[in-house]
Amino acid sequence: MVAQVSIGVQPSCARRPTVSPPQPRFQLSAKPLFRRSPLRSASSKPAASTEKPGASAVMEASGFDSEGREFRNAEEMWREAIGKEGDVHKRKEWYRQGVGYWEGVEATTDGVLGGYAHVNDADVKGSEAFLKMILAERFPGGGRGRNLVALDCGSGIGRVTKNLLIRFFAEVDLLEPVSHFLEAARESLAPESGSAIENRATNFFCVPLQEFTPDVGRYDVIWIQWCIGHCR
Q1: Distance between alpha carbon 116 and the CA centroid of its chain, in Å?
Q2: What is the pTM (predicted TM-score) of this model?
Q3: Which of 16, 66, 169, 227 could bridge across to 11 with cysteines, CB 3.0–4.6 Å?
């Protein structure tokens, strides 16, 4: 049984930037893919409403790209960014520019969180609550006593693996296309001398998420945080 966990819609493909190297055509960040203006709808619900907006309402938000061009919705932006399904060149260019941006960001918690390192503890706490819920639902006894294996997609410097996943899984593999992020993760997650903790970071794959094919049956949980929203 494999639990595929997706946290948010943004992390390796996307994190909020703080520096200003040459920008991709459409800025990759932990913000929405484009800056939203108020939703265009025929009516509005009371602020106290607990009803969740439908997918159509969310996708009808308009916004601007990093060059100031306006788009009526996310799909319109995506069509401009990567073209039609068969436009391989545009799709490759989208991913190339995204990785190129992050290659200019420092390999620190503040760097990968775009200057918002102070949210790290709250993020880990919320993720831990969610992970415990998933483990309880998917595995008897919440997975205790089992040698579970996780894949951290868009792992960056290993922030989530070190602060969270390594405590719940016997092995964690890290997948990250930015080489200096992955090297920082390797150093940070190196076993400490004399440590009695058996859990470990096992494999470090310097491969983009969209090009990675996991080994069949290896992973019990695939963790995708702040990244998948930039993959098409």
Answers
A1: 16
A2: 0.71
A3: 227
